[in-house]
Design goal:
477 residues; mainly alpha; two-stranded antiparallel sheet
Length: 477
């Protein structure tokens, strides 16, 4: 029996509340893959478990949502002991001692579970239409996991002219103990696999914009629209500007989502009902009672609270910006030092809110950047999209009318930092734009890091290198 299917089944034990109820089955330790994928309800169970698998501290409940802002300058610590991801903050991670090693192993376990779904669902008994949707959603999950892995453990797409730098081990089928050890594909090859999965999923989805699991809201599961939104983000990171532009433009013009107003922005980060601009978010079951991502920002959680906003970030907002410290951050004084904690994830345990992965505001900023970079640049559109997000945040801000590409890109990157803070993007934005990291409000051993520093890419875990002689370590480690 595949050991990873056991992990998947254990994860299903607490599936998302939004999912349909899991059918009563025999104990998980007696289930085989053939039992689970015997029919469509079993495949749905596996799919629900794959979504739930995203909610680990190694993935969206901490590491991938925090380390990018911590390393790039949006986050500082409010305590001096028991800090999570401290090696990354100090830029002293090694293949043996890196908190992202757990992320590497966890994401590959998730990937194997998703590949089980893709491999075994076609032979399950039941509705062909439902099987098509299950496969489409699973391919989106596989694309998302590969996308997260390649951004963490490889250089950005444009690090070399043809993206020939080593990417990640791309896994497209269940891995069994007797299989040959995987090798790293190039960054270009990795991105092409991600794009292919999303294109195949998009072509398979119907236009109902609903997931295959009953009783769900569209934002909690991949659909044709959320797959396109992820594809636009992938194209952006792959410097495929025309494709990024057209894909983001299609989603924005579909009118399925709408930007929040200045007055409703702050409240949109509370509760568990998706906002009008949420495209894809990972749901939280009603009985969730773990620390969660919010526990690290929650003022009352003196055990885990630690990720305060750095002045490098809070100083970027104008006095009239709704996203500034007075409105979008919770203040607290600890040992006579004043700190601000983001309200985006302000409560843990039973108060934990869904993890927002794709929002319409990011699609506007993707279209803006792509408009400035595409083969036939459109500065008018770039300025309009940039101003839409700037003025939503600060209604008194003057409209920009930037006339050079460099000025536009810098303004868009600044707005991405302000709008998408604490959403796991800053490091990747700086890396793909070859920007140095400069941290002023910082007590790290290494506050400033050049864009070409090897430590901006996380090492492949040493146990992976030892176990697989075909696996190449990242340069410098």
């Amino acid at each position: 029996m595949n050991k990873n299917i056991i992990l998947l089944l254990l994860a299903v034990a607490l599936t998302l509340n939004a999912c349909e109820k899991i059918l009563d089955k025999q104990p998980t330790d007696k289930l085989s893959i053939s039992d689970l994928f015997k029919d469509v309800p079993g495949a749905k169970t596996a799919l629900a478990g794959a979504y739930s698998d995203l909610l680990t501290e190694a993935h969206y409940m901490r590491n991938t949502m925090v380390y990018t802002d911590l390393l790039a300058g949006n986050i500082k610590y409010s305590k001096t002991t028991n800090n999570r991801l401290e090696e990354v903050y100090n830029v002293i991670q090694t293949p043996i001692l890196s908190p992202m090693n757990e992320t590497y192993s966890s994401l590959y376990e998730e990937l194997n579970n998703v590949n089980n779904i893709i491999f075994y669902t076609p032979s399950a008994e039941g509705s062909t239409l439902e099987k098509v949707k299950i496969l489409a959603e699973a391919k989106c999950l596989r694309a998302l996991i590969h996308f997260d892995l390649v951004r963490i453990f490889a250089r950005p797409f444009n690090y070399t002219a043809n993206a020939s730098y080593p990417g990640i081990a791309v896994i497209l089928k269940p891995q069994l103990f007797g299989d040959p050890p995987p090798v790293r594909a190039s960054v270009a090859e990795t991105y092409q696999v991600i794009i292919n999965d999303l294109l195949e999923a998009i072509s398979s989805f119907d236009d109902t914009n609903k997931g295959v699991l009953n009783g769900t809201v569209k934002q909690n599961f991949f659909t044709k629209s959320s797959a396109k939104a992820l594809l636009a983000k992938v194209y952006l990171n792959a410097n495929k500007w025309d494709d990024a532009y057209s894909t983001a433009d299609e989603i924005i013009k579909s009118n399925q989502y709408s930007l929040l107003t200045n007055a409703t922005y702050v409240a949109s980060w509370t509760g568990r009902i998706p906002s009008s601009e949420s495209i894809f978010e990972i749901a939280i079951e009603n009985n969730f009672n773990s620390t969660g991502l919010g526990g690290y920002f929650e003022l009352s959680n003196t055990t885990y609270r630690q990720y305060a906003a750095a002045a490098d970030l809070t100083g970027l907002y104008s006095a009239s910006d709704i996203r500034r410290g007075a409105t979008m951050f919770n203040p607290i004084t600890i040992n006579s030092v004043a700190y601000l904690f983001s309200k985006k994830y302000a409560a843990g345990a039973s108060g934990q809110t869904p993890i927002k992965v794709l929002r319409l505001s990011e699609l506007y900023l993707i279209r803006a950047e792509a408009a400035a970079e595409k083969a036939s640049p459109d500065f008018t559109q770039a300025n309009a999209d940039l101003n839409a997000i700037r003025r939503r945040g600060d209604a008194s801000a003057a409209n920009l009318n930037l006339t050079t590409k460099d000025a536009l890109i810098d303004a868009i990157l600044l707005e991405r930092r302000k709008e998408l803070a604490f959403e796991g993007n800053l490091l990747y934005d700086l890396a793909r734009r070859k920007k140095n990291i400069v941290r002023i409000d910082c007590i790290s051993q290494n506050c400033n890091i050049n864009a070409d520093d090897y430590r901006l890419v996380m090492p492949i875990p040493s146990n992976t290198i030892i176990a697989n002689r075909s696996m190449v370590q990242n340069q410098g480690y």
